[in-house]
DNA sequence: CGAATAGTTGAGGACTCTCAATCGGTGTGG
DNA sequence: CCACACCGATTGAGAGTCCTCAACTATTCG
């Protein structure tokens, strides 16, 4: 159980364990996010300037604000430079369902590719900084460079697999297993970013977590308390410390 | 409720209502599947021969056989020419979860793009015929043609949105709503293919349906019976007739 | 500092699951 | 051609998980 189908980190992979310190000096994409797509490593050097020139513009989004909304016209992909966002769908009767949590380094906006209109909304969970990648320019670049093309494809594929993994969570795990899987996922993604895997500030509310996991906020809360009593975690509001990773992994 | 985030048909779209008759004479892709990607419409004519030459080779898969398995090396995308398949993931403890149903015209294999290894398995629900699209050739073609590039991207985006829609189903609908949503989805996809939206043969077992919908096979069966008593459907094993679409839509 | 929001905990009930028996088709062999 | 076995589907009864409603506490932000 608790089996993500594939590694859950979307963009950041084997590459880095180097800490992404809070202060990223440049407003460019150099230190940012979406390494696979955005970063020079492995790119023929002549393509570097193109990438730099065309692609990454920074943008700030404040806590609670939307980077884009469901129904907005799609014209750019995004990468989280710092901060975090949630993606969500609003269904007909107005209820919203969280579809994902995007941390620094994650890509955002793929939900608009199919129809040129965003299917999700993306809302900042804290003040965040976002790289913008104009999709048209990106496509052009991908036509010129097979490396870039590959990266974009992999990026899309990763998102696809990550969603599949979440389908698995929603389709076959109990509430406890879902919460455990979620904590482990965040922990692992934190670790891949060079932060602590044991302790992190989870800026989603209990309600958001519940919505993401297909359970109610009360159940989330109860389960966190239960985990705490069992010594698996130490949660104080949004600050979560994982005390027993293996314990969490075995439900 | 019952709100797919985007149209659920992946490849086949506004284009066709023309019946895709059972006998497709050519072994090529002309009548097949994956129109957006595969078919000539809108493509500069000089690219047509390339596409025909490079891309579509047909292949048969018999009921119960796997087109590919989780863990297999990824090198091609596929399009269902005729028949139907289910995609599934096997998690650590050996349980499998159905992740999708692919009908004629649907694309298949995207689950391998991220890692060069298939995350899903694809198993035929009936004897089926499959177009193979070597991924390397496809990439080359997409670098030469913006139209092809766009189509491939949209194809991937569609799959992404379809999964998101399923996450929504799994995350926020009751068992009855899930079954109704599933029937309506299949009905609509059938209709888009030029077949009846009211009557179709659903080749998944109750167990498969349950797995796909995150409920047990018994619950699926009970709910189908309930729907039948209410006059919403008329189900005889795998043959399903929808009597009251609007009724199904309102739960 | 205080109002509003977020989180915790409890009790009762609803929904879905589990276990089990039965029914029904399909294919095989006598 | 029929009997039987086998697999899938149906239906029932009881149990368990999770939800709903509600009260209360803690935290956050103006």
UniProtKB/TrEMBL annotation, chains A, B:
GO terms for molecular function: DNA binding; DNA-binding transcription factor activity. One of its GO terms (cellular component) is cytosol. Residues 173-246 form the HTH crp-type domain. Keywords: DNA-binding, Transcription, Transcription regulation. The keyword Ribonucleoprotein does not apply. It holds the Pfam family cNMP_binding. This is CRP/FNR family transcriptional regulator. Residues 39-109 form the Cyclic nucleotide-binding domain.
